[in-house]
Amino acid sequence: MDENKANRRVARGRGSHLHGPLRRQAEKDGYETKNPEIEIGPITLNTSSRVVVRDGDEVALTPAEYAIFESLAMNRGRVLSKEQLLDAIHDSDSYAGPNVIEVMVCNLRKKVGHNGEEPVVRTRRGYGYFVK
Predict the structure, then answer these.
(1) Smallest Cα–Cα separation from 86: which of 119, 129, 25, 27?
(2) Alpha-carbon distances, residue 74 vs 2, 21, 33, 68, 116 (angstroms)
(3) Domains (ranges, CATH) in the chain?
(4) CA atoms within 13 A on the CB side of 31
(5) Fewest CB within 10 A of the end CB: N or C in the chain?
(6) Residue 123 burial by CB count (10 A; 0-12/13-18/19+): exposed, middle or buried?
(7) Alpha carbon distance 22, 85 (integer Å)
(8) 104 burial class (0-12, 13-18, 19+ CB within 10 angstroms)?
């Protein structure tokens, strides 16, 4: 199995669901998997229960939306390409195009954001997405 296919496998039921290069980089940057909560402004992401809470209310995310948000949160401040985010959500060898990521990020922004605020998930045109 080549490295890209191996990196697409998502470890289910074990702590953080990041894998491969994204997980190694997040750990290198000091995001310890022992603390399951990541706070981004009014949003709390719990990596052990896979729950996202905003202002005390749980945000209903699909597993793929959660995987994207977790990847971005664990790599906070770092721009992740659509391909890196595809790697984070796929646990099979099936192919999905980059527009799938665009749609999921759009849905994620609607679910975790509020009108009139800067988006939590931001775009770096031509490069990818990041969380500040």
Answers:
(1) 129
(2) 24, 12, 9, 10, 25
(3) 3-131 (1.10.10.10)
(4) 25
(5) N
(6) middle
(7) 9
(8) buried
Q: Over 60: is that where the pLDDT of 6 sits?
A: no
Say how many residues make up the chain.
Answer: 132
DSSP string, the chain: --HHHHHHPPPTTSS----HHHHHHHHHTT--TTS-EEEETTEEEETTTTEEEETTEEE---HHHHHHHHHHHHTTTS-B-HHHHHHHH--SS----HHHHHHHHHHHHHHH--TTSPPSEEEETTTEEEE-
Burial of 79 (0-12, 13-18, 19+ CB in 10 A): middle
Report the C-alpha gap between 40 and 3 in whole angstroms.
31
Mind listing the pLDDT tens digit for each residue in 57-81?
Answer: 999 999 999 999 999 999 999 999 9
Tokens at 8, concatenated = 């697409």
